[in-house]
From TrEMBL:
Keywords: ATP-binding, Nucleotide-binding, Transport. Residues 7-240 form the ABC transporter domain. CDD domains: ABC_NrtD_SsuB_transporters (cd03293). PANTHER family: ALIPHATIC SULFONATES IMPORT ATP-BINDING PROTEIN SSUB, TAURINE IMPORT ATP-BINDING PROTEIN-RELATED. One of its GO terms (molecular function) is ATP binding. This is ABC transporter ATP-binding protein. SUPFAM superfamilies: P-loop containing nucleoside triphosphate hydrolases.
Length: 270
């Protein structure tokens, strides 16, 4: 069974220990992702989404449970997994051109030097930045910078792309454009994406599945198959009655999750 899943999060727990205080952030988070799926993880701010993503990416060790990527338990950042973070202004190096930024991860991996220009050009074209490679990040709008960060993730040709609230720092119009860009790209390139957001609308609009995190510590409250037509459209999809129902279901789960938090902030003495 497990062989069909490209990624499995098994009973994952994570606590941060600072001084003598132990804060339980994740408790028994459990789900799988199949090849080619677009899976959204939604939860309120501070619920542990970035913590979950960092465990999946092998950047921090879990306190319990494990992450299995392509059949191997993750103990360090896997080579075939890329992460795109929220804050593009901190992820792109300002003194390098966009081209050079996109080239950065290619140095580490098995990309022959002669092939890199074509890989970079294709990645930039895929995000609508063809011909913009010679610009520096500071010569670009926020939306263009985030496109460049996405291009860098793509150039690396990962088997799974992890995205941590990638559009939280851009304006509303750019956000809509980037949502549609990522959806279109993921379909065209048959990518497997795990997309983390606190935005309920974004999660339902983007996902083939929505995993709702709730509680403190967080666990999977529900794993919802998004039974909307696969081709998404900002107006038509969001006008469908089913879209409204799914949105309401996620909203309710998150509201329920917030209630106990006031009594139990998830902090206990170690
Ligand atoms: P989200 O991404 O859902 O907003 P995070 O995973 O960033 O949530 O954070 C979850 C909780 O863990 C927050 O209360 C945050 O303050 C805490 N936290 C995050 N990183 C650390 C850390 N390195 N050490 C201690 N606490 C942390
Ligand atoms: Mg976060």
């Amino acid at each position: 069974m497990a062989e069909n899943h490209i990624l499995a999060v098994n009973e994952l727990g994570k606590a941060y220990v600072t001084n003598d205080t132990r804060a339980e952030i994740l408790d028994g988070v459990d789900f799988v992702v199949d090849t080619g799926e677009f899976v959204c993880v939604v939860g309120p701010s501070g619920s542990g989404k970035t913590t979950l993503l960092k465990c999946i990416a092998g950047l921090i060790p879990p306190s319990s449970g494990r992450v299995v990527f392509e059949g191997e338990t993750v103990t360090e950042p896997p080579a075939k997994l890329a992460v795109i973070f929220q804050d593009y202004s901190r992820s792109l190096l300002p003194w390098m051109t966009v081209e050079k930024n996109v080239e950065l991860p290619l140095h580490k991996a098995k990309f022959p030097k002669a092939e890199r220009p074509a890989i970079i050009a294709e990645a930039l074209a895929n995000v609508g930045l063809a011909g913009k490679g010679k610009l520096h990040p500071w010569e670009m709008s926020g939306g263009m910078q985030q496109r460049a960060a996405i291009a860098r993730g793509l150039a690396y040709q990962p088997d799974v792309l992890l995205m941590d609230e990638p559009f939280a720092a851009v304006d509303a119009q750019t956000r809509i454009e980037l949502e549609d860009l990522v959806l279109e790209m993921s379909r065209r390139l048959k990518m497997t994406v795990l997309f983390v957001t606190h935005d309920i609308d974004e999660a339902v609009y983007m996902g083939d599945r929505v995993i709702v995190l709730s509680g403190a510590p967080a666990k999977v409250a529900r794993d919802i198959a998004v039974d909307l037509p696969p081709e998404r459209h900002q107006l038509h999809t969001k006008n469908l009655p089913r879209y409204g129902e799914l949105r309401a279901e996620v909203f309710e789960l998150i509201q329920q999750a917030k209630r106990p938090v006031t009594q139990n902030v998830g902090v206990v003495r170690a």
